[in-house]
Specification:
The chain is an all-alpha fold and 324 residues long. It contains 13 helices and two strands.
Length: 324
Amino acid sequence: MFWKSKNWLLTFSIVDNLIEGLTHFKRKFILVTLLIMSTVVIFNFESAVLLYATSLFLLIYLLITYFIAFTKPFKKSILFESFSNLSIKLTKSSFTKRLIEINEELRGKELNTFNQTQEILYANNLQLAVIAHRGMYFIANKLSMYKKSRIYLYHISINIIFLFLFSAFIFSLINFALYKISSSNFAYSGTFGWFDFLYYSSFAMFSGGSENLSPVSILSKVIKMIMLVSAGIIILTIILNVSFLVKGEKYKEDIDELAETLKKNSEYFQNFISEEYNLSIFQAIEILHKLKSGFITLIFMLSQDIPGIENLRSEDESKKDNNK
């Protein structure tokens, strides 16, 4: 099962990437659109002015990408910040309170006097409060394991691989544009197309490039020098990311801060259940189990650290097996 494995560790990293991708979506959509348009221009137009302008734009685009990648280790994880803000909003929201408080028509009544409709209404409100409490507490506990794991290195690897491939792609377009402007910018043998420049750019960032293609003009040599500098930036970015994530305290402090926020907000819901329903967490889960709450399986999963929960869960699974 998912919660019995370490798959959720990888999930933290995947979700982090997804949230990061969705952040500033409008801005990123515009940039991607401009990149596509630039690619179309380089492949389909012959105007030297247009090709020069597009190449300059791509170079600036790449520099911005490097800046973002280079400064990323200094910033708080978007995943952690999003979780923290979400938990705070859920805790302070009046809408949340309306969802989890006892319905007015049920106040002052004993549970054993409820009819079926009232039981469902009572269980729906109570289970949301329990899920909010247990969910935040569950994530807070798992974060400490995430901090000790090395799963975030996958996150680094994905970003670095993307940075290299993206760089090679951008430089292939720029070099191809220079070739279209004037084939004398390069010394080559045979007929060359864009893929040959992609091959050349991929290797030229770290070595001499392709043996069948080499820069000749000052401009193409300058681009080759920029490619070598770019390789250095990528390597420095790798070192910086690994240093901050593996050895740096800031990353760990961010996790601890989020875990503390989640636990604090989790306690709010625990106190709410105690004051509003006059129940402990175990008693609340026990009642939800008796009322056959629709989310009882999820609640059991989030509450394995509570003594006695495993017995309730085993009882629930036994009933399901007997009903088959």
